[in-house]
Amino acid sequence: MSFLNLSHLEKSFGANRVVKDFNLAVEKGEFISLLGPSGCGKTTVLRMVAGFEVPTSGGIVIDGQDVTGLKANQRNIGMMFQAYALFPNLTVAENVAFGLKVKGVAKDRRDARVAEMLRLIGLPEMGGRYPFQLSGGQQQRVALARALAPSPRVLLLDEPLSALDAKVRVSLRNEIREIQRELGITTIFVTHDQEEALSMSDRVVVMNGGIAEQVGAPFEVYNRPATRFVATFVGTLNIFDGKVTGPETAEVAGVPVRLAEPVAVAQGARLSLALRPEAVHLGRKEGAEVVLPAVIQGVEFLGSIIRVRAEVAGSVVALDTFNRSDAPPPAIGTQAEVSLSGRDLIVLQD
Amino acid sequence: MADDRPAQGPRFRWPVEWLGILPFAVFAVLFLILPTMKIVVGAFQTPEGGFTFQNIIELNTDSIRSAYWTSIKLSFVTALLGCAVGFAMAAAVVFGGLPKGIRSPLLTFSGVASNFAGVPLAFAFIATLGPVGLVTVWLRTEFGINLRAMGFNLLSFWGLVITYLFFQIPLMILIITPALDGLKREWREAAAVLGATGVQYWRMVALPILFPSILGTFALLFANAFGAVATAFALTGPQLNIVPIKLFAQIRGDVLGNPNLGYALAFGMIVITAAANFLYIWLRVRSERWLK
Amino acid sequence: MMRLVAWGTLVLGCLYFLLPLLGMTEFSLKMRRGEYSLDAYRVVFADPRFWETFGYSLALSAATIVVGVVLVVPTAYWVRLRLPQARPFVEFVTLLPLVIPAIVIVFGYIRLYNTSSFLPLTGSAFGTDILLTMGYATLALPYMYRSVDTGLRTIDVGVLTEAAQSLGAGWFTILARIILPNVMVAVLSGAFLTLAIVMGEFTMAALLNRPAFGPYMQLLGANRAYEPPALAVIAFAITWGCMGLMQLVTRFAKHERAKA
């Protein structure tokens, strides 16, 4: 039995089934992301765990206790919200102390815990300030401290970074992950940002239309997407014209290649072959199975990476190369060659 | 400050920009500030124009003291009940899980009812709770309840309270509904997930946040009731002993025997409504440290 | 449970508001013995004094609205554009009428503008009408200013002004052709509210001795039984009409904006 179990969760609003037969087992101390486009049901799952929504059917068990019928204030859960949900009328210290105060923790123990939490988030001097005197990033850190102060069993994060600007977002996500590791607290993180999900999580749940399409480690979800949706939603993808010729072989632009692992599909089924941009190489790469002529169509200089769009065998392909100071990016319109290998191919089934 | 700066640019410019609000300033001075000043100054003048405290001292008679006391009580009670009932109704609509279609008609009706004050309002209540009013007759014939015999009289203090609430409650609804909308769902959810009960959330978060709005509306309702003449006058005529009616009678025909006593009476009204508002501003500043 | 309490509160509240409306309506229909009739309304509408005072108050409403708009729109505009430092002062003044009772203000008028003063407005009927109009404009000032100022907040006053100036418009043109149309909804809202306030106003008109609708209703109320509730119904209809029109322009404007 895992620490947090969601079994056969269903939620309907009227005739609209928002979450369909959702199952998830989270280990103690694990960091899990629910990733998906807006309206995919990820927030609804989180709100059911928090106790704000009652599941239409199914059950939620935390640490062996069935909490499905419990109210939000009886579950001992910590939560961080998207917008600045700090209480504006209370100081930072009073915000952090709120959960302890309503539990009736004595003042001296409360104060000690608040000081500990403020040290943890790196704002030990800010206790006397009001939320409006803090930056967005500081407010969200205080929100984290407030959620952690009562030592909750589970931490829920509802897109806590989406209202912040890019720099703060990256530094805060590292900080959240560090604190989470340090405390070993079981965490569910909801986001629509794949970079956040992939960089922070032990495991990612990719959701679409109320269904968990794939549950797996970031490396696995990215490199071995289980469904077409996961493949296209996570990362950029080049779809190639090609066909599977055998259990472990395929053809790309007429050239036979070898797949990384056998595909179990009926012969002749409609399949697509796809490649990540970083699996397509500009120029002739040593050991590549296929080399194709290409025409450069566009160049995006992204800093450490240069993303090139090239026309290959009638379709436009995106490919990534690392920036090197001695090799300027190719000019638009020039002829080039691209190379690729069968072991990088992702086979997409419909 | 200008001294230690070298003389550069235009040295002095007539504040021509201020000319833009000159018409408004003239209007305000002529029809708002001067008339008020006239009252304030007159309260400390003898009929011949000399300075005196006599007018203020003469306010201290049984009749005038009781008029002020009744007025203050009336304004306080109607403001308090208006705030309480208005808050309850607004909260019922905003948080009570009622159908969405109720909200807009209630707000429109509140707009109408808060402006349906004065003479016609008195007529409506006479037709309803007066000696032969709809409710009075209905209670008597259907249930044998005789309001009169039970001591209820529309022309009494509580009769006035019931009548005034007809414009006080809607005013509260109009002002507090947007404030209730301003309470974020996240605050309530954050409180709940931290283990707070509904009561704890209201006591520690929601009410402190709403406090300035409620207080401000209370001050407004107080002034609103304190200065109201028409409703009381149409309901009871000139004999009811509240300050605005007394002042009304005095302006019409010097019933106090001292023309400058009228100034003092009016000055007292300004002092009380101003005091209510200063109290409000002071409490607001104290309670709003968390606002910019 | 919560929903039950909410419903209960609402129903009780609505009962309190509906009973007087029901009461006045029912009473106004009872003039003829033993049956409901519109006799009270017939009597009211047949009274020339009704039409005189009604017309007088209507005319005064119009004058008040004109004064209010001419006073408030340029001031609010100017404060937003060039004089933000005057905002606290102007806002304080516009809020004063909510604090100083109308009866005190009109008392000041009577003593300040009497026949022996520097501006003997109360000496003539026309002068008194002007004074009354100014008094009404004062009463409506808080609502008018708030409404227009809110309207101005939604448009970029600075950019509109500079655009108009670069096309050669003068101040009058800017105000009349650019700013006013853009805050028309706010102005109309304020205007209908002013209309509702002025039509029922009693204190100022009574103390300045002008034949307005409010004092007429009061006079009738002191002497008759069935006509007053009929007048109350009419007054309620007027108020409702004003508020309805207010909602209508706001909704219409939203619709227009959505189309654009």
UniProtKB/TrEMBL annotation, chain A:
Domain of life: Bacteria
SUPFAM superfamilies linked to this entry: MOP-like, P-loop containing nucleoside triphosphate hydrolases
Record-annotated ABC transporter domain positions: 4-234
Keyword hit for 4Fe-4S: no
GO MF assignments: ATP binding; ATP hydrolysis activity; transmembrane transporter activity
SMART domains per record: AAA (SM00382)
Keyword Protein biosynthesis set for record: no
UniProt cross-references to PROSITE patterns, sorted A to Z: ABC_TRANSPORTER_1 (PS00211), ABC_TRANSPORTER_2 (PS50893)
Keywords for this protein: ATP-binding, Cell inner membrane, Cell membrane, Membrane, Nucleotide-binding, Translocase, Transport
Any one GO CC term of the record: ATP-binding cassette (ABC) transporter complex
Record GO biological process: quaternary ammonium group transport
Pfam families listed in its UniProt record: ABC_tran (PF00005), TOBE_2 (PF08402)
Name this polypeptide is given: ABC transporter ATP-binding protein
Native source organism of the sequence: Paragemmobacter kunshanensis
TrEMBL record, chain B:
Membrane topology: Multi-pass membrane protein
UniProt main location, coarse: membrane
One record GO biological process: transmembrane transport
Domain ABC transmembrane type-1 stretches: 68-280
SUPFAM superfamilies: MetI-like
Listed transmembrane segments: 12-34, 74-98, 118-139, 151-180, 200-222, 229-249, 261-283
Record CDD domains: TM_PBP2
Family: Belongs to the binding-protein-dependent transport system permease family. CysTW subfamily.
Protein name as it appears in the record: ABC transporter permease subunit
From TrEMBL, chain C:
Pfam families (alphabetical): BPD_transp_1
PROSITE patterns: ABC_TM1 (PS50928)
Mode of membrane association: Multi-pass membrane protein
Keyword Phosphoprotein among record annotations: no
Keyword Transmembrane helix: yes
TM segment ranges: 54-77, 89-112, 124-145, 183-208, 228-249
UniProt GO cellular component terms: plasma membrane
Domain ABC transmembrane type-1: 54-249
Keyword entries, A-Z: Cell inner membrane, Cell membrane, Membrane, Transmembrane, Transmembrane helix, Transport
Subcellular location: Cell inner membrane; Cell membrane
GO terms for biological process, alphabetical: transmembrane transport
Family the entry assigns: Belongs to the binding-protein-dependent transport system permease family.
Listed name of the protein: ABC transporter permease
Organism: Paragemmobacter kunshanensis
